[in-house]
């Protein structure tokens, strides 16, 4: 069953990475699919669906979005992914996502600084990598 969830998350998050890099957009339908997968993951592996932590992040994320620090799709994606994680995994997820975000920023600046300056950072890539690391390690 672990392989099924890892493959499902990998497939869904690969699409997130592609669309975020190409269009700087994360589809609501895709976020919904990820939320369903995350809820099932939480139910089967953590015996818990973390609605409270997801809701708290959604509230905090709203203010992050209003301040223009992160896009709405990124906030919704993180919220959907948090649903299936336990508290230790959430801390790991935040840590790994931060590290991956720095790497995505540095790589983006090396490849195309003008694109990063104009269109922003495709943070969905960092979120996807951080999540996959948090459920793997």
TrEMBL record:
Primary site of residence: membrane
Localization in the cell: Cell membrane
Keywords: Cell membrane, Membrane, Transmembrane, Transmembrane helix
UniProt-recorded Gene Ontology molecular function terms: aspartic-type endopeptidase activity
UniProt superkingdom: Bacteria
TM helices/strands, residue ranges: 30-45, 51-72, 93-114
InterPro entries xrefs: Preflagellin_Peptidase, Prepilin_IV_endopep_pep
GO CC terms of this entry: plasma membrane
Ranges where the Prepilin type IV endopeptidase peptidase domain occurs: 10-105
UniProt membrane topology term: Multi-pass membrane protein
Keyword Cell membrane assigned: yes
Protein name listed in UniProt: Prepilin type IV endopeptidase peptidase domain-containing protein
Organism: Candidatus Williamhamiltonella defendens
């Amino acid at each position: 069953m672990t392989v099924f969830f890892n493959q499902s998350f990998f497939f869904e998050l690969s699409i997130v990475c592609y669309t975020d890099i190409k269009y700087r957009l994360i589809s609501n339908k895709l976020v919904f699919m990820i939320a369903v997968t995350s809820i099932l993951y939480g139910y089967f592996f953590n015996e818990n669906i973390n609605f409270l932590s997801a809701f708290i992040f959604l509230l905090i994320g709203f203010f992050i979005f209003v301040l223009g620090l992160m896009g709405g799709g990124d906030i919704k994606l993180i919220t959907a992914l948090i649903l299936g994680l336990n508290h230790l995994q959430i801390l790991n997820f935040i840590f790994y996502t931060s590290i991956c975000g720095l790497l995505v920023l540095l790589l983006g600046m090396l490849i195309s600084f003008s694109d990063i300056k104009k269109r922003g950072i495709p943070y969905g890539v960092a979120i996807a990598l951080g999540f996959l690391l948090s459920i793997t390690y």
